[in-house]
């Protein structure tokens, strides 16, 4: 049965015609192009590259950036709905779009020179180039301020040394937005594939986000020309502002994964017979479905309001933390309940629930762990940061 959406509170009435059209277009794409192939990609642990030109054609990269750079010029509801639908397919597919748009195109747009924007944004929008974002290091995950990757000034540019880890799209990227310390200050650099001393080995054997490329980035005396530094990015605030964009998309995306698990659960509960009845006739099963629907509806309302604040440029990063933290946590709860409700069938690739559950373990960790977002909120509430020293 084709997916009809989950809309218990008639939220469609809050959406414009354009917003609904974007949502439905991406939904159809996911139904016809993603769902038929994604289990195989997940099982065999590869990212289905054939989706990339199709996603570009749909305008899914740089959706909210200005049209003069070949981007979509759309509002944040459209962007959020697109992320929701992609993640209903798979978190790995949404991750690809998040990284390309929020973590590569956004910093080039926001902090790049006009030349860098003209060179990269149209190519990234058309997926003629793929990007990745290197912030996390082996010893600095939640605390990127401590990073040890270093840039040193040399004649005509910079010499980059260090390593990044857990980088989505790293091995397939044409350009890496890399954060490194120059004279103790964090700066952003565009490191291009093929630059001498730069390698990006893929990290294998993941149990989560198997349909997504995750890599190390290794820099050994990589010479970066002056024109590849992002002139406007100075200090930790620059990469963190990119995370705000991506976390916003994740808040929406997690609802997509939750919707997939809820939808599968309703279908299963109404058709699987035990003790002479559909399991959906048992109160304990109904309680699970009621919980799922309630949390999805609350998450949808958070996202919609967040989008409005973002469009009005009133959004605070802490508000994004609240939504990322909440929506990923409830999506993971819902995926686990859905897995349980499907019984033994829940562990197979015939149903999407365990794939979503495994993916969401990564989504809970990346872009700020659940607990880091708890501390961001705690600091905002009390005025007392509790991160470290
Ligand atoms: P702190 O002193 O709090 O902040 C430094 C400066 O940055 C400002 N700021 C932000 N600005 C914009 N957006 C945000 N979200 C911001 N958060 C902070 C802040 O106002 C300050 O500005 P200023 O003017 O005073 O300099 O920095 P801190 O070192 O104490 O760190 C705070 C903490 C722990 C919250 C931060 O480091 C953090 O968020 N850590 C989590 C790291 C993280 O999320 N990494 C993600 C890596 S990328 C990734 O996971 C991609 S997954 C991709 C996929 O989808 O596949
Ligand atoms: P750690 O920071 O070591 O945390 C371990 C545990 O300690 C967590 O539970 C954490 O909440 C807890 N903890 C840490 N500090 C505190 C504290 N002060 N108080 C209480 N608890 C604390 N990064 C990128 O830069 N680019 C990418 O494209 C990217 N893609 C990723 C893709 C995948 C599949 C994954 C899994 C990760 C990716 N990451 C990426 C990295 C991700 O952002 C980090 O894994 C994340 O920020 C957490 O860092 P860590 O894994 O080093 O955990």
* SSE arrangement, N to C: HHHHHEEEEEEEEHEEHHHH
**Shape field:** globular
Q: How many H/I helices?
A: 10
By DSSP, the count of extended strands is: 10
Could you state the CATH homologous superfamily of the largest domain?
Answer: Butyryl-CoA Dehydrogenase, subunit A, domain 3
Mean pLDDT rating: 98
Query: How much strand?
Result: 15-25%
In total, the number of domains comes to 3
Q: Please tell me how large the radius of gyration is.
A: 21 Å
Structural class: alpha+beta
Q: From the 3D coordinates, which CATH architecture of the largest domain would you assign?
A: Up-down Bundle
Main pleated-sheet profile: 8 strands, mixed
Low-confidence stretches: none
- How far apart are the first and last residues' alpha carbons, in Å? 54 Å
Task: Please explain how this structure is put together.
- This protein has helices at 17-44, 51-57, 76-89, 91-111, 114-125, 237-271, 283-311, 317-341, 353-365, 370-382; strands at 131-134, 150-154, 157-168, 175-182, 185-192, 198-199, 214-225, 229-234, 273-274, 277-278.
- The chain is globular.
- The protein is of the alpha+beta class.
- The longest helix is centred in the middle third of the chain and has 35 residues, at 237-271.
- Strand 9 (273-274) and strand 10 form a beta hairpin.
- It is 51% helix and 16% strand.
- Helix 3 crosses helix 6, helix 6 packs antiparallel against helix 7 and helix 6 (237-271) runs antiparallel to helix 9 (353-365).
- The strands form two sheets. Strands 1, 2, 3, 4, 5, 6, 7 and 8 form an eight-stranded mixed β-sheet that branches. A two-stranded antiparallel ribbon has the order 9-10.
- It has three domains: 11-125, Acyl-CoA dehydrogenase/oxidase, N-terminal domain (Butyryl-Coa Dehydrogenase, subunit A, domain 1); 131-234, Butyryl-CoA Dehydrogenase, subunit A, domain 2 (Beta Barrel), CATH 2.40.110.10; 238-382, Butyryl-CoA Dehydrogenase, subunit A, domain 3.
- Residues 95, 98-99, 133, 135-136, 142-145, 168, 235-237, 240-241, 243-244, 246, 317, 366-368, 372, 376, 387 line the site of 3-thiaglutaryl-CoA (TGC).
């Amino acid at each position: 049965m084709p997916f009809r959406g989950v809309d218990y509170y008639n939220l469609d009435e809050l959406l414009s015609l354009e917003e609904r059209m974007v949502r439905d277009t991406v939904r159809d794409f996911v139904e016809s192009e993603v769902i038929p192939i994604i289990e195989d990609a997940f099982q065999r642990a590869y990212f289905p590259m054939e989706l990339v030109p199709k996603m570009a054609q749909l305008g899914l990269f740089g959706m909210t950036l200005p049209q003069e750079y070949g981007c979509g010029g759309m509002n944040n509801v459209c962007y959020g709905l697109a992320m929701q639908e992609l993640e209903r397919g798979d978190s790995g597919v949404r991750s690809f779009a998040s990284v390309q748009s929020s973590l590569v195109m956004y910093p080039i747009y926001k902090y790049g020179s006009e030349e860098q924007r003209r060179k990269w944004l149209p190519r990234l929008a058309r997926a003629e180039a793929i990007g990745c974002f290197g912030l996390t290091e082996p010893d600095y995950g939640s605390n990127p301020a401590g990073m040890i990757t270093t840039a040193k000034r040399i004649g005509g540019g910079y010499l980059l040394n260090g390593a990044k880890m857990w980088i989505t799209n790293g091995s397939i990227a044409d350009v890496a937005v890399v954060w490194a310390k120059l004279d103790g200050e964090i700066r952003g650099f565009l490191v291009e594939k093929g630059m001498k001393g730069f390698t990006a080995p893929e990290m294998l054997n993941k149990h989560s986000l198997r349909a997504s490329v995750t890599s190390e980035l290794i820099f050994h005396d990589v010479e970066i020309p002056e024109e590849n530094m992002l002139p406007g990015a100075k200090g930790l605030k620059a990469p963190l502002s990119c995370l705000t964009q991506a976390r916003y998309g994740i808040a929406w995306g997690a609802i997509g994964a939750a919707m997939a698990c809820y939808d599968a659960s309703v279908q299963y509960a109404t058709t699987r017979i035990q003790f002479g009845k559909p399991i959906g006739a048992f109160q304990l099963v109904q309680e699970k479905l009621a919980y799922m629907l309630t949390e999805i509806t609350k998450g949808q309302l958070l996202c919609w309001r967040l989008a409005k604040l973002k469009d009005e440029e009133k959004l605070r990063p802490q508000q994004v933390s609240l939504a990322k933290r909440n929506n990923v946590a409830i999506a993971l709860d819902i995926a686990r309940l859905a897995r349980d409700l499907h019984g033994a069938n829940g562990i197979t690739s015939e149903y999407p629930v365990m794939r979503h559950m495994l993916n969401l373990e990564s989504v809970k960790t990346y872009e700020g762990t659940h607990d880091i977002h708890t501390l961001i909120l705690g600091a905002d509430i009390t005025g007392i940061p509790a991160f470290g020293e």
